[in-house]
Amino acid sequence: MNAPALPDTLIRILADKAVEVRERSARTSTDAIEKLARDGGKPRDFTGALCGAVAEGRIGLIAEIKRASPSGGLIRDPFRPAEIAQAYEAAGAACLSVLTDAPYFQGSPEHLTAARAACSLPVLRKDFMVDPWQVYESRAMGGDCILLIMAALSDAQANELEDVARSLDMSVLAEVHDERELDRALGLNTRLIGINNRDLRSLRTDLATAERMVPLVPADRIPVAESGLRDPADVQRMAAVGARCILVGEHLLRQPDVSAAARAMVQA
Q: Which end of the chain is more exposed for a tag (fewer CB within 10 A), N or C?
């Protein structure tokens, strides 16, 4: 079966990311960034934190920190990653997700570093991974987990990036949008399978995507429902089909009290 054509926006993002990685890796070699990664200490257990939350009867919330997005524009201003991280931790979030892409999300590595230093939660580095250099960079900046967007990667690329992450004791969240991508993601070793409810072409969200796909995730994997969750009823809807781990960002960040909003999700 031929792979579906990528949306123009994703093609543009990936092209820009490839240029960015070439420029950054020209300034810091792979050997140098790998040394920084391996000297950075042991990662926090991202997968274990989610499993622990679920075992305790809570929702495993990956609470996201991002300043802006292509679909939502500017989300939070003033934007203080450390304060947001502390608010999420106080609310009972299991993990953080921090956007580091600058052109499309107004993110930076400093946002991740500041958020992680302000709390004890494991952190997902949310970016467009296209090169092993970025995996080492993710660990060097303090990331405990990386995101692999299956729509943006070949099987060979995804396996290579996962192998590097595993060599650093990092977790991997494999993100899928449809059944074909799910089949490909199940070829990886990671237990974490993110099911994104956002259509890559229209950018609209539909929780029916996760409702359709979560039951297809094998019992030895952990489904994570992503995008479009706005209230405890949505969380309960995802839990009803087997997704007791969720990733929520924009809804939380648009609330005056992000801690109260996150607590409502955790206790749904």
A: N
- Using the structure block, give the residue that is written with the tokens 């230093």: 117
Ordered alpha helix ranges (H), the chain:
8-27, 30-38, 46-55, 81-91, 102-105, 109-117, 132-140, 155-167, 179-185, 208-213, 232-240, 250-253, 258-266
DSSP string, 88-110: HHHHT-SEEEEE--HHHH---HH
Kindly list the catalytic residues.
Answer: 64, 66, 126, 175, 196, 226-227
Confidence of residue 136 (pLDDT cuts 50, 70, 90): very high
Burial class of residue 215 (count of CB atoms within 10 Å of its CB; 0-12, 13-18, 19+): exposed
The amino acid that residue 229 corresponds to is L
Q: Are 87 and 264 in contact (CB under 8 A)?
A: no
With helix as H, strand as E and coil as C, how does 170-206 read? CEEEEEECCHHHHHHHCCCCCCEEEEECECCCCCCEC
Which sign, positive or negative, has the C-alpha torsion 89, 221, 169, 185? negative
Dihedrals phi, psi of 150, to nearest 5 degrees:
-60, -30
**Average per-residue pLDDT in the chain?**
95
Respond yes or no on whether the N-terminal peptide bond of residue 43 is cis (omega within 30° of 0): no
Residue range 185-200: mean pLDDT, rounded: 96
Cα–Cα dist 20/14, whole Å: 10
50-90 pLDDT per residue, tens:
999 999 999 999 999 999 988 788 999 899 999 999 999 99
